[in-house]
Amino acid sequence: MRGLWSAASGMAAQQMNMDVIANNLANANTSGFKAARADFQDLLYQTMQAPGATAAAGAQVPTGIQVGLGTRCAAVQRMFITGQLRQTGNALDLAIEGDGFFTVLTPDGTTAYTRDGAFKLDGNGRVVSSEGCVLQPEITVPPEATNITVGRDGTVTVSLPGQTEPQTLGQIQLARFLNPAGLSAIGRNMYVATAASGEAVTGLGGSNGFGTVAQYSLEMSNVKIIDEMVNLIVAQRAYEVNSKAIQASDEMLQMANNLRR
To answer: Taking a C-beta distance cutoff of 8 angstroms, is the pair 64, 51 a contact?
Structure first.
C-alpha cells in the first residue's frame, strides 16, 4: 500500500520543517541571525498510464494515471532580509544597513563572514568579534585613544591626547556574494564561502551597492515570531494528518486481512 510510505515521508518532512522552525525561534534574539525556510518537493511518480497514450479504441488518453510516492526536503534556504536595528550606545557595536558582511579571521586562519557587529577590543587593542575573531582588515586601537568613531563608509577614527585632529586607524571593508543563500553556516553567527555562494566581492560602505555602516547599533534577528508560530501550527497539523493517513492505511490492511469467504 503506497499510502503508508507516502504518509511516512510526509511525517519525516514535517519533522525537518519543525527542526528549522525551532531553530528560528531559538535564535529570535540572536544579533544578525537570518531565518531559514524549509523547501519541499514531491518524489517519483508511478506511471500506470502515461498522459497522451493511445487507448484501445484509438482515442488519446487526456490525463493518464500517475500516483505520487511522497515528499522530501529539497533545501533549507536562509533568508537574508535585513533585520531591525537596535540602538546600544556602544561605540564598537556596528550594523550594516543594506547588503554586505563583515569579514573576520578565525583563530585557525579561516576567513569567515558575519552580520553580527558586536565587536570588542582584545588585549592587543585589535577589533575582534565575541569569539575573538579578528576583524579584517585588521584595525588596532592605541591604548590612549578615546572617542572611537566609525563613519558610514567604515572609516575608523579616534582622538589622541595632544592632537586636535582625529587620527584615522583604517577602514572597514564589507563583503557581499552573488548568492548569499549558498553560504555555509558554521555557527557563532558566521558563514564561509562555498562554490554555490561564489567568491566574495569586497568594497566600502555606501559604494557600488554595499550597505552603510551604522555605529552604536546592532542588527536584530529577522525572525518574525508570529510567522514562525503560524508555521509551527501548520507543521503540527500536517504531521498529524499524515499520521492519520498511516492509521487509515493500517485499518484498510486489517480489513483485508480479516476477509472471510
So the answer is: yes
Is beta strand 65-68 parallel, antiparallel or unpaired with respect to 212-215?
unpaired
Q: Provide the 8-state DSSP code for 99.
A: S
Residue 176 has pLDDT above 70, yes or no: yes
Rg over alpha carbons for the chain, rounded to the nearest Å, is: 27
- Comparing CA positions, the residue from 98, 100, 117 lying closest to residue 201 is 100
Among 166, 99, 86, 208, which Cα is nearest to 156's?
A: 166
> Mean pLDDT throughout 97-123?
96
To which H or E segment does residue 229 belong? helix 225-257
Smallest CA-to-CA distance from 142 within 168, 172, 171 is with 168
CB within 8 A of 2, min separation 6: which ones?
46, 67, 69
Decide: residue 119, CB within 10 A, 0-12 exposed, 13-18 middle, 19+ buried.
buried
Could you write out the DSSP letters of every residue in 8-68?
HHHHHHHHHHHHHHHHHHHTTT-TT---EEEEEEE--EEEEE-TT-B-TTSPBPSS-EEEE
> Please, what's the b/e burial string for 38-49 (b: 16 or more CB within 10 A of its CB; e: otherwise)?
beeeeeeeeeee
189-212 pLDDT, tens digit per residue, is: 999 999 999 999 999 999 999 999
Q: What are the residues facing 187 on neighbouring strands?
A: 190
Query: Do the beta carbons of residue 189 and residue 32 sit within 8 Å?
Result: yes
